[in-house]
Amino acid sequence: MLLAVLAPFVILSFYAHPQGDDFHMVNTVAKLGFWGAQVHWYTEWQGRFFSAALLSANPLLFRSIALYKLIPAILIVLMAHALSQLLKTFAPELSGWDRICAALAVVGLYLWQMPSPAEGIYWYTGAMTYVFPCVLLIYLCGALKINWWAARVAMGLLALAICGSSETTMMALVALSIGVLLSSVAYPELRKTAGVLLGFAVIGALAVVLAPGNHVRLGYFPHEHSFGKAVFADLVSAARYCVQWMVSLPLAAATLAALCMGKRAKTESISKIHPLLALGFLFVIVASGLFPSIWVIQGAPPQRALNTVYFVFLTGWLANAYYAGSYFPGVPGFASIAMLAAALLVQGGNLRPAWDDLLSGRAARYDRQLKETYKRITECRETPCVVPPLEDPPATLFFDDLKPDPEDWRNESVAFYFGKKDVISR
Questions:
Q1: What's the pLDDT band for 267 if we cut at 50, 70, 90?
Q2: Strand locations in 235-389, DSSP E?
Q3: Are residue 233 and residue 90 in the same domain, yes or no?
Q4: Which of 1, 173, 219, 249 could disulfide-link 341, Cβ–Cβ 3.0 to 4.6 Å?
């Protein structure tokens, strides 16, 4: 049943195509070179030094749509591996099979309920900026118990990368680092690790916040920024999203699965921190992740940012449920995971559209249409190059298209990439 949940998302990877900023970022590298592009982004647009480097290595730079299509599948596999390694560190009493099933179940639940698979998995820019840092965050958490300096340095570098990916992941990591430092009161062995983690997180955050490009970018949001109003709106939004994500049958089944598997935990694995306190701090981390978008936009965060916040909520919620499991009667872990898979299949979520995009032929038709679009632009000799708009694109993969206006930044980016003066969709 887990395969039935994960299979469509993996298969859809091979129908993914570049959109939005993908072409724009690659064009900047083509004009300025790799290092010139980094300087440009950092001084004129944003402080996201790590994701900017990843986006400057987009497979489009190598003219490879085939490699582009591999990235979503690789990201899903890395997510499952990171979660499995995390469980190996913090739940060593679980068997290898239970760890693998649990990791796949969490990935399945994330894909099922993530706000936008199109912007988080199948769009390279969104994946590298908002979801890949979540994978790095899980690897970082899995290294918290390794008590030697080389591991701490590696963890510090991961912290820099996570902070340098987006303001959302930066704030979530800083909040988590403070939480780890506070928890070292109950776990003295974490004290040195917590200090290193917080130190690197603060350095990474300062590098992002103080970037000259951030001040330029804020100029596009000229409205007044009230800290008090932003904090209030942030707390209200965090509460609303947490409730929205909690009241779903699959998450209820996953929570039961975590409680049941935690029931079998050894005494030394039981958390010394009360579950309610841990839940309170999870809320703080969620609110921290939401704050940058609410502060700048003064409205609902974009779907791509919510992809990050939901991942943090989901993994934190289930980790807390696992450690709270000693208070509840248990059933076999495999049976509880089977219940979760059944709930995912029954309720739908992103799973139903994913299967529909595959089985209806919509994803394959989208792939053919875009290949034909690339061919028409390449062979075009007129100005402007006219391409037809996409017909019935798959919701799981698609969120942005060319416009009728040749001066739209999307059109200009595609035109430059293909060496044309103007491209329009009509």
A1: very low
A2: 385-387
A3: yes
A4: 1
| Cα separation values, 211 from 45, 49, 142, 206, 359, Å | 9, 9, 30, 8, 46
The mean predicted confidence, pLDDT, of the chain is: 87
User: Residue 331 falls within a domain, yes or no?
Assistant: yes
Residues 139 and 74 in one domain: yes
Domain count, the chain: 2
pLDDT for 336 beyond 70: no
Strands 385-387 and 423-425: parallel
Coil, strand, or helix at residue 349?
coil
Looking up tokens 């099922």, which residue turns up? 112
User: By the 8 A CB rule, do 121 and 161 touch?
Assistant: no
- Return the pLDDT at 335: 53
Give the residue with greater pLDDT, 164 vs 326: 164
User: Under 8 Å CB-to-CB from 27, ≥6 apart: which residues?
Assistant: 413, 416, 417
CB 151, CB 143: distance < 8 Å:
yes
* CA distance to 82, 103, 146, 237, 339, per residue, from 331 (Å): 26, 18, 31, 35, 11
Place of tokens 């309920």: 113
Band (pLDDT 50/70/90 cuts) for residue 80 is very high
C-alpha span between 256 and 365 (Å, rounded): 40
Dist CA 339 CA 247 (whole Å): 16
Structural domain includes residue 374: no
Q: Is residue 158 part of a domain?
A: yes
Look at residue 367 and tell me if it is in a domain. Answer: no
In a shared domain, residues 286 and 390: no
Domain extent at residue 154: 2-358
Which percentage of the chain shows pLDDT scores above 90? 59
Give the C-alpha distances (Å, rounded to integers) separating 231 from 42, 49, 284, 290, 363.
Answer: 27, 26, 11, 10, 41
Tokens of 167: 């303001």
Q: Looking at the structure, do residues 299 and 408 belong to the same domain, yes or no?
A: no
Q: Which residues pair with 188 in a beta bridge?
A: none
User: 9-57, pLDDT tens digit by residue?
Assistant: 999 999 999 998 999 999 999 999 999 999 999 999 889 999 999 999 9
For the record, the structure tokens of 177 come out as 């680092």
| Dist CA 234 CA 340 (whole Å) | 31
List beta partners, residue 387. Answer: 425
φ and ψ of 271, to 5 deg? -65, 140
Structure tokens at 339: 């219940």
Residues 296 and 412 in one domain: no
Quick one: 170 exposed, middle or buried, by C-beta within 10 A (0-12, 13-18, 19+)? buried
